[in-house]
Fold this sequence. Notes:
Layout lengths: L5 H20 L3 H31 L5 H33 L2
Amino acid sequence: MLRTQFNFRxxxxxxxxxxxxxxxxxxxxxxxxxxxxxxxxxxxxxxINTAIEDAVTLASPNVxxxxxxxxxxxxxxxxxxxxASVVVGVIVFGPRLAP
Length: 99
């Protein structure tokens, strides 16, 4: 996935930045657990999204609204997880950054 999926690379880079920020912020164990689960969820859903997109393309090489809908729903799952990860980031890092 690293070689072929741009979004996976972006999400992995963001995850690495979050880990670096966590080291800098000296997070507590529960915060590390929450961030690890969140990063894993986003990356895992991106992998599932890629698998669904590839399988749908293989099964339906012609344009079909149902195939497009399946791809869109899979991508929406990643988007929802990414949005939730921002909320987790605010919860974990917000108190440390607020004056």
